[in-house]
Amino acid sequence: MSAPTLKIDDLKLSFKTWSGTAQVLHGISLHIKKGERVALVGESGSGKSVTARIVLGMLQQLKSARIAGSVEFEGVNLETLKPASRHALRGTRMSMIFQDPTSSLNPVYPIFAQFKEVLERAQPGITNEKAREKAISALADVAINEPDRVLDSYAFQLSGGMNQRVMIAMALANNPALLLADEPGTALDVTVQAQTLKLMSELVKKHHTSVLFISHNLGVVREFADRVYVIYKGNIVEQGPTERLFDDPKHPYTRALLSAVPRITGGGIPDLDDDPGRFTAPLVAHEGYSERELLA
Amino acid sequence: MSTLLSVNNVSKQFEVNGRTVQAIDAVSFAVEKGECLAIVGESGSGKSTIANIILGIYAATSGSLTFNGSELPAKRSKEYRRAIQLVQQNPLSSLNPRRSIGASLRLALDVHDIGEKAGRAKRTGELLEDVGLPADFRRRSPSSLSGGQRQRVAIARALACQSELVVLDEPTSALDVLVQARVLKLLKELKDSRGLTYVFITHDLSVVRNIADRVAVFERGKLVELGQTSAIFTNPQNPYTRRLIGAVPVVSREEAALRDRLMEQESGNA
Ligand SMILES: Nc1ncnc2c1ncn2[C@@H]1O[C@H](COP(=O)(O)OP(=O)(O)OP(=O)(O)O)[C@@H](O)[C@H]1O
Ligand SMILES: Nc1ncnc2c1ncn2[C@@H]1O[C@H](COP(=O)(O)OP(=O)(O)OP(=O)(O)O)[C@@H](O)[C@H]1O
Ligand SMILES: [Mg+2]
Ligand SMILES: [Mg+2]
């Protein structure tokens, strides 16, 4: 059997701050097999984005960050790679849709220049014409009506959802083996969101892309993901196959989370059940879905 | 009820590289005192643009706005800048990266002279705790915060100013549903106690269903439907509104049933 596309083992992260050390990740383990769509859901500030940034190798340069544990990509421990080879993976074999699209795009270059740079990473020397052609069709795939206008604009001249779609199109452009999608649908209306999810699903099928899908939108997670990890304050607290986890949530935090989802049928904002004492209960893995069982 | 804000036949065009973008196309609506008016719609339909026009950040190409019965000037006085607050869609760019969170909040209190000087430092901590953040986040920088933490700082700052109208542009898109519930309850509390008025822009229709009094639906710069929340969700008149509600991802069976019923109506009409 081939190695999983991504395997994170006992990942720990702390930051040095003015008041001492703040532990952010307490040793999390998760993996994604080839062609699998795995969701990471949980509390705001629990460590989802930093996990994705560590995989991409973006937090390592930060002086205040202390990282321990291992991250393997297609069987290779990323720490053993030379910086240049690691850098070469970014935007080609692994790519990321960042949570804050408008500030992740470069404000001083028009979109086309940034798109071309992405394409060049996989195809050095690609001509302007060819790059433009590719960019236009990639933008059409994410329901951008006026691709020419968008390519000639700066990020501040586009709406939040247009920037998000530009980011999605760039992340998918080089058919990555691993896609890290951090809140990819927050600025999209539900019809456009449905279309981009479909596009991602097609990519998964066609190129066996593995996806780490970070989202607060549990309805979308339910429709998109094969498996789910739930994270609370830097610990994975529950993991299992999507349907079982939604139908039969076992951890107190997951239960509280699911009961707080506002319903389209109304009924008001649900009353809070956020007794943090119970949320620190140990990890629950659904039967057959622990890391040990899945990686055996 | 009396009208707090009225938007009268407002249009906005942008010129980009010789192309004209009609971001807002002859839009009129009123916001009543003490209500929560939700704006939903297509991505790129002009929601953030209308927010920026209400705040005076962009000038309308044509049309006018009135606030408490008087015409809103293009250049806003300090009074108006306090009375109307904005929570931006992209919170990172609205917080000064070189200022600590505490300093940003403090600045808002100082500029608008809110509360006794001596109590302001303490007040910044309370504002953070109201949105579920620890008071010692005052010392942190915006770049060291998670997406949802920044979003909550932006909300805390807007609520600090004792304003009359708060325009919230996707204010809870980076919050988990538990924190979101807490923030929405805080907004409701302030609405009930202070009579605060909200324009709440979001793609999350399930949130809209549960907090908005009325809903405005935008498509391609036009206001295509406006009505009471319950009416919009049970009997939407506009085909685009029906398509929107029909595409909401849901977590329960009852919700799926409502969605399917609307989809059926939609295909019956087509
Ligand atoms: N400063 C600007 N210069 C040029 N065009 C602009 C500018 N601001 C907005 N636009 C254009 O106006 C239209 C409406 O944008 P707006 O940001 O209001 O959309 P939105 O409804 O908020 O969308 P989203 O849901 O994606 O945030 C878009 O086509 C956008 O490209
Ligand atoms: N540079 C930093 N210095 C100190 N603390 C940091 C830094 N970057 C992130 N953190 C902290 O690490 C924690 C995890 O952050 P992360 O961005 O991963 O959260 P998240 O799960 O993505 O949350 P959200 O859903 O709100 O986006 C947060 O509490 C955040 O404040
Ligand atoms: Mg995040
Ligand atoms: Mg917007």
Entry keywords:
heterodimer, A: 296 residues, alpha/beta, Rossmann fold, seven-stranded mixed β-sheet, four-stranded antiparallel β-sheet, 38% helix, globular, B: 270 residues, six-stranded mixed β-sheet, 11 helices, 10 strands, binds adenosine-5'-triphosphate, binds magnesium ion
CATH class of chain A: Alpha Beta
- Tell me the strand order in the biggest sheet of chain A: 6-7-8-3-9-10-11
Strand content of chain A: 15-25%
Task: Give me the oligomer status.
Answer: heterodimer
Q: What is the tally of beta strands of chain A?
A: 11
Which spans of chain B have pLDDT < 50 for at least 5 consecutive residues? none
Radius of gyration of chain B: 19 Å
Provide the fold topology.
The complex is a heterodimer of chains A (296) and B (270).
Chain A: E1 6-17, E2 20-32, E3 37-42, H1 48-56, E4 65-73, E5 76-77, H2 83-89, E6 94-97, H3 101-104, H4 111-122, H5 128-141, H6 147-151, H7 160-172, E7 178-182, H8 190-207, E8 210-214, H9 218-224, E9 227-232, E10 235-241, H10 242-247, H11 252-259, H12 276-279, E11 284-285, H13 291-295
Parallel strand pairs in A: 3-8, 3-9, 6-7, 7-8, 10-11
Antiparallel strand pairs in A: 1-2, 1-4, 4-5, 9-10
Helix pairs in contact in A: 4-5, 5-7
Chain B: E1 3-16, E2 19-32, E3 36-41, H1 47-54, E4 62-67, E5 70-71, H2 78-83, E6 84-87, H3 91-94, H4 101-111, H5 120-130, H6 147-160, E7 165-169, H7 177-194, E8 197-201, H8 205-211, E9 214-219, E10 222-228, H9 229-234, H10 239-246, H11 253-269
Parallel strand pairs in B: 3-8, 3-9, 6-7, 7-8
Antiparallel strand pairs in B: 1-2, 1-4, 4-5, 9-10
Helix pairs in contact in B: 4-5, 4-6, 5-6, 10-11
Bound molecules: adenosine-5'-triphosphate (2 copies) and magnesium ion (2 copies).
